UniProtKB/TrEMBL annotation:
Classification via Pfam families: DUF7144 (PF23636)
Transmembrane feature ranges: 25-52, 72-93, 100-116, 122-140
Membrane recorded as keyword: yes
Organism: Paractinoplanes globisporus
Matches recorded under InterPro entries: DUF7144
Alphabetical keyword list: Membrane, Transmembrane, Transmembrane helix
Protein name: DUF7144 domain-containing protein
Source lineage: Bacteria, Bacillati, Actinomycetota, Actinomycetes, Micromonosporales
Length: 147
């Protein structure tokens, strides 16, 4: 080694910030990102079905919780779905904006599916449960995925 290429001595220390230790919840945050992508796809499919086939969903005499036709609900689900897919990809890339949008979209998705319960109760209940799990993972442990 030449004189210009000296090794740093043991007494010279440099501060490198430590990243918080990742926990097992990193998997759940990745799961939340993947679920946002899947839920977005499901929402988009549900929206397209409502837009293209008004007679597909059956409701009771009371109808939907909110008085909207299926085409309006279809566009609502389609828009939520597309944004959820984009947010899910952002979550997998460790983006903070994606976590925030992911939580907002999951809340909107859960609320829209509560209103959609009379039309498709089992499907809407499953989507609501997955939305709640995604919200928990993104809010409590979302920072662990950042690179």
């Amino acid at each position: 080694m030449s004189e210009t290429q000296q090794r740093p001595s043991a007494s010279s220390t440099s501060y490198t910030p430590r990243r918080p230790q990742a926990t097992g919840w990193v998997g759940f945050v990745v799961f939340a990102g993947v679920m946002l992508i899947m839920l977005g796809g499901f929402q988009a499919i549900e929206g397209l079905v409502a837009i293209l086939r008004d007679d597909y969903y059956l409701v009771t005499r009371s109808g939907l919780l909110l008085n909207m036709d299926y085409t309006a609900w279809g566009w609502t689900h389609l828009i939520i779905g597309v944004i959820a897919v984009i947010a899910g990809i952002g979550v997998l890339l460790g983006q903070t904006w994606a976590r925030v949008i992911g939580v907002i979209i999951a809340v909107l998705s859960a609320l829209s599916n509560i209103a959609f319960l009379p039309a498709y109760p089992i499907w809407a209940t499953i989507i609501i449960a997955l939305d709640v799990l995604a919200i928990y993972a993104l809010t409590v442990h979302g920072r662990e995925v950042q690179y």
